[in-house]
Design goal:
- The strands form 3 sheets. The chain has a 4-stranded mixed β-sheet, covered by helices on one side. Strands 8-9-10-11 form a 4-stranded antiparallel β-sheet.
- It has 2 domains: 69 residues, no CATH class; 95 residues, no CATH class.
- The protein is α+β, with helices and mostly antiparallel strands and 174 residues long.
- Helix 1 packs across helix 2 and helix 2 packs antiparallel against helix 3.
Length: 174
């Protein structure tokens, strides 16, 4: 089984067939018993390191069979920037929210965004910053890095309201 470690520390996967070290942000082939349920709550497989760990086996964007993340890592004062294509494919709710705001900007005569900007946004040519600060996820779109730097957050969510699968996705992008 190909296991991805989504954290910034090496972890040790302990199975009935032996131990395997999975370096930080790396995918490693790990031998697991055929009878093992593919999650970390099965007696035949666990993470040796202290803390609370969770895994996902569906929609693993890394290409691994399983991704492992620490529940103890808090998203705070970190960010990543990605293009609108990625957001559309991987984070539909955020994309729809930002797209709606973008459409409003295009029709607002006080705003500098125009139909060409909307087309570029839809074509994946705009950037989206995900900023995690003070218990919030703040999403901002811009033409490029400079445009992002000049923007206030377009949309916000409380981190506590975000589904664990999305948190795992966001952590994997850091």
């Amino acid at each position: 089984m190909r296991i991805y470690n989504g954290e910034n520390i090496d972890i040790t996967i302990v199975t009935d067939l032996g131990d395997a070290i999975v370096p930080a942000k790396t995918t490693v082939e790990v031998e697991v018993p055929e009878t093992a349920i593919l999650n970390l709550h099965d007696d035949s497989m666990c993470v040796q390191e202290e803390g609370s760990w969770y895994s996902k086996t569906e929609q693993c964007h890394t290409g691994a069979d399983m991704e492992i993340y620490s529940e103890d890592v808090i998203l705070d004062h970190v960010s990543f920037t990605i293009d609108t294509d990625w957001v559309k494919e991987n984070d539909e709710e955020v994309y729809d929210e930002l797209h709606g705001i973008m459409e409003d900007f295009v029709t607002d005569e006080q705003n500098a965004c125009d139909a060409e900007d909307l087309e570029n946004f839809e074509a994946g040519n705009w950037k989206v910053e995900y900023l995690f600060r003070d218990g919030e996820a703040i999403y901002t779109a811009g033409r490029d890095g400079q445009h992002l730097a000049n923007q206030d957050g377009w949309s916000r969510d409380k981190i506590s309201d975000i589904e664990p699968e999305k948190i795992a996705l966001y952590k994997s992008m850091l």
